[in-house]
Amino acid sequence: xxxxxxxxxxxxxxxxxxxxxxxxxxxxxxxxxxxxxxxxxxxxxxxxxxxxxxxxxxxxxxxxxxxxxxxxxxxxxxxxxxxxxxxxxxxxxxxxxxxxxxxxxxxxxxxxxxxxxxxxxxxxxxxxxxxxxxxxxxxxxxxxxxxxxxxxxxxxxxxxxxxxxxxxxxxxxxxxxxxxxxxxxxxxxxxxxxx
Length: 195
Hints:
Blueprint: H1 3-22, H2 27-53, H3 59-82, H4 88-110, H5 119-148, H6 153-184, H7 186-194
Helix pairs in contact: 1-2, 1-3, 2-5, 3-4, 3-5, 4-6, 5-6
């Protein structure tokens, strides 16, 4: 188990710890959750960088790195649905894409192949993480300001419009990357149909 793979496993653990803290009420819990998400995001950058620089890429890393990303991102989005900041249909589309792509990766494993993440998938992940940081920023901003001033409904409307627009872009990139992934691996699916 090399360092990049260890960082991938740490990211999965941090996803569960993050999910616990973001589900709690209070500014302190949200700040801790944001710090945990930031740390987990840094492990995503670090494991890829180390693996490429020191030639430590492995089949385990190719499979588990994107799965670890999914754990972290879905933990955040599902929490945002619970506290009614993000629309549930948006998260359902994201979840559906991740289930299909992960299912394809697992199917490929049964055929002795490991499907790595693609560039479109990386762009999708970045857009999702940006959206999550914006939502976390909104929660912290709202909870902080509410302690000093009366929270303005007009300010919240602007924030929520911005979040909705950002989420629409994120959902679009998520679906596009999923379709691209299926298209680029269509031969694998076609071979299965011929078996």
